[in-house]
Design goal:
Elements (H helix, E strand, L loop, with lengths): L2 H12 L4 H10 L10 H13 L3 E6 L7 E6 L1 H16 L5 H9 L6 H29 L4 H30 L12 H8 L6
Antiparallel strand pairs: 1-2
Helix pairs in contact: 1-4, 2-3, 4-5, 4-6, 6-7
Length: 199
């Protein structure tokens, strides 16, 4: 699943929305800082997710003008969102944007689910940092530019590792207030879908 698809599922998990509202929320929250999703691709993604059974489409009357399509999350969509959120939290490959995607979806995971994934991420990062240090040590002496490249990678991973360690400690100690967990049963989804008439 692409980051853009995950963003769509994330926003529909909050409540049913029409396409233009999705665009407005993406813009308001600055979500394009950490994921690539253009306005022109939103409806394409919605239709793709609908075909995959992750999104339902219904028609709602607008206050002015023609009726509009409103999209809501299905049970399959919620399960896909949860799986991708856990994968994003656990993945130490790539840049920080993957981690941000996982963090944005913490409300759809329990503390017991998310914590092991974050710990796995931390272990993976520590391994990457050690690997970089060993590579540099084996290659020395190296030109200053090569030393700088290794140092940049080592330091950036180190900063991410420091933040992640602190965050894990906050979760374990109860200092971090866990987001209100979203119901994963059919009743919860039906309650979300009932909000369609309010948009």
């Amino acid at each position: 699943m692409t980051d853009a698809e995950l963003v769509i599922l994330h926003l529909l998990a909050e409540k049913p929305r029409h396409g233009y509202e999705i665009e407005e929320v993406i813009e308001e929250r600055g979500m394009r800082e950490w994921t690539a999703i253009g306005f022109s691709s939103i409806y394409y993604l919605l239709n793709k997710l609908e075909e995959a059974g992750m999104v339902d489409k219904s028609t709602a009357a607008a206050e002015r003008g023609p009726s509009r399509n409103v999209f809501s999350l299905t049970q399959a969509g919620l399960q896909a969102l949860r799986l991708e959120a856990l994968t994003s939290l656990a993945s130490h490959q790539g840049d920080y944007k993957t981690l941000l995607m996982g963090l944005a979806n913490l409300p759809y995971l329990s503390r017991q689910e998310a914590l092991p994934a974050l710990i796995e991420h931390r272990i993976g990062l520590a391994g990457r940092q050690d690997h970089i240090a060993q590579q540099l040590e084996r290659q020395r002496p190296v030109p200053d530019i090569v030393e700088a490249l290794f140092d940049c990678s080592f330091t950036m991973i180190g900063a991410r590792l420091t933040w992640l360690t602190t965050f894990i400690e906050q979760i374990e100690s109860g200092q971090f207030a866990w987001p209100e967990e979203i119901s994963q049963n059919e009743t919860g989804l039906e309650e979300n879908n009932s909000d369609t008439s309010k948009d």
